[in-house]
């Protein structure tokens, strides 16, 4: 080896002269040459490398050219590089198959079968058994029966004999997804009694009952298929940059996309600089190809598929997840009584002005207020006249008598036939006061009655007028339609509701609505200026007809109206996209079934949404001893399984009193048994976690020179352990030998971060050994 290094060193001296320096790293399976120079004839260097490769057959030959004192090369070339990483290990066929029982073969049940098979793919051996009450099953998905491991069991899934015939004793998960929630709950209770270890996934919308059953039955998950897909419909209707909005542990998140333009601050900047504590880049749809040392080998994935040193260019479409900050008012310090009085005195003129505005804003309030002033004046006048004109009358009795007169009690004050010592003129004044007070009381009572009637019959008021532009038209108010309307209202989106069912006219009385034939009323909803049309009626052909009417009515628009179409036959999806370009056909049960499939493998599904026609699930994991997450760094989970960690909670307090939970957690945290992790994942990501099949890492060679100062030595070792997961004793043994080289298996973002942070502490060279 020494002679080979000497020969290469002599050839490089002749090739490059004194204008460059180089570093030769010879290993068992690789020969890496690192050249530092600003002026290198790359073509000549490539020809030399080709000749060297012909003479040396010991493994991979790698050439790198870097700027002086830089950690990463700007040019590289490899010869005969081995395949990336090790192949995935297959599961042993003899280890047994997981058994799943699906009760109910309606639309949701059939889509659950399809999603379970997609989840398992070819690497996970599972058995799927189905139970259906009726023999005549209408299959909505072609060849779906072939995905079952055995013929359908016919019978009532609530009966013990039927569940035993389906193999409940060896079942891993039972999915009760019939259209009758009572049947689903009863089936779950019977199944738990027959097999206490079975995992139960139930279709149910009764939140209180579900929470109580989860405490009693243990491994129990209840999902509502009408709520899960609603965000996908609502966000598709917005046709804006927001792709999703959800809440985790009281913290709101949103997923949004943007397009890089010539005026964008992103233009020309590296992607890694825009990662923030409250915001993360999760996907990039790039319109250009960029050669990068850190180019991942998995570009087909939705998440984490771009090189971390990518620079944004015009036309790129990054997608972000952002934690919405909630700004709370700071607490006000306690003040003294005098200070509070002074402060209230200063606010008095403003409060009086607000009071007068409130009085004059309503005619009834103004009349009542004037009546109170007149009544008070008459009360004081009557009391004074009685006190000074009636002998032996006290002030107390004078004011009491005046108040009685204001209430129409003239007989109570001057009752009887005896001669009262009251002058006649005063008697006439008191009569007038009583008459005015009676009229005043009658008027006030009339105004109050009018207000009560207005409140009582408020439901017969006319709805608000139809918006004229930039509104969303929602057709049909079934359960999904109602959820869509509620979500769109949270975004303060102008809406128009269109229904043909009289019972639905009582819903959302504060929103504009059209009632009648859908096809006849649709043009009246200002189609030509509407933002989008959401069709959620149970009639698939009606949805298609309305979509065609809307597209035809808006042909002259610069941009066609957005169409979100609820379908029930998944085979129509591709046909509708060809028939109606830019339309979004969504199958509610197909979306919900992916959440049910994920829940069937023991995970808790918190919601779902779509990114570029791919369903993204929000999965809640609790790390258990021996599972595929224990001992992994969060960065390894993110890049190895292609998921986005959103929330992390440690089962015990961190050392040093740090918080035990983090939103958008750091890549360097290590998962232990009992920890909780919430991720965004596709069905492929969930399957990889279930099987423990992480994407292969690349081998990287790290050379570290002498530290810039003595204090940096320990920090170098800590950083290597923190970012790579290498044990602390191994890291400290390495730094004691500096300058030295180390081979690591890392994902591209980990390697990039390691180089970025180490280069400030010591001269380093970092390059991959595999491509």
Anisotropy-based shape: extended
CATH C-level name of the largest domain: Alpha Beta
N/C terminus separation = 24 Å
CATH architecture of the largest domain: 3-Layer(aba) Sandwich
**CATH fold name of the largest domain, please?**
Rossmann fold
Number of domains: 6
Strand residues, percent: 15-25%
| Rg on CA atoms, Å | 38 Å
Please tally the β strands and state the result.
28
Biggest sheet architecture? 6 strands, parallel
Question: Regions with pLDDT < 50 over 5+ consecutive residues?
Answer: 81-95, 326-335
Instruction: Give the spatial strand order of the biggest sheet.
Output: 7-6-5-8-9-10
Overall residue-averaged pLDDT value: 80
Helix content bin: 25-40%
The tally of helices reads 22
CATH level 4 superfamily of the largest domain: NAD(P)-binding Rossmann-like Domain
Q: Main attributes?
A:
six-stranded parallel sheet, 28 strands, 22 helices, Rossmann fold, GMP Synthetase, Chain A, domain 3, alpha/beta, 6 domains, 771 residues
Structural description of this entry:
It contains 22 helices and 28 strands. It is of the alpha/beta class and 771 residues long. It has 6 domains: 1-81, GMP Synthetase, Chain A, domain 3 (2-Layer Sandwich), CATH 3.30.300; 94-223, Rossmann fold; 362-454; 472-582, Rossmann fold, CATH 3.40.50.720; 591-691, Regulator of K+ conductance, C-terminal domain (Alpha-Beta Plaits), CATH 3.30.70; 697-771, Ribosomal protein L7/L12, C-terminal domain/Adaptor protein ClpS (Ribosomal Protein L30, Chain: A), CATH 3.30.1390. A hairpin with a 2-residue loop joins strand 11 and strand 12 (251-257). Helix 3 (107-120) crosses helix 17, helix 9 runs antiparallel to helix 12 (424-456) and helix 20 (712-724) crosses helix 21. It is extended and about 140 Å long.
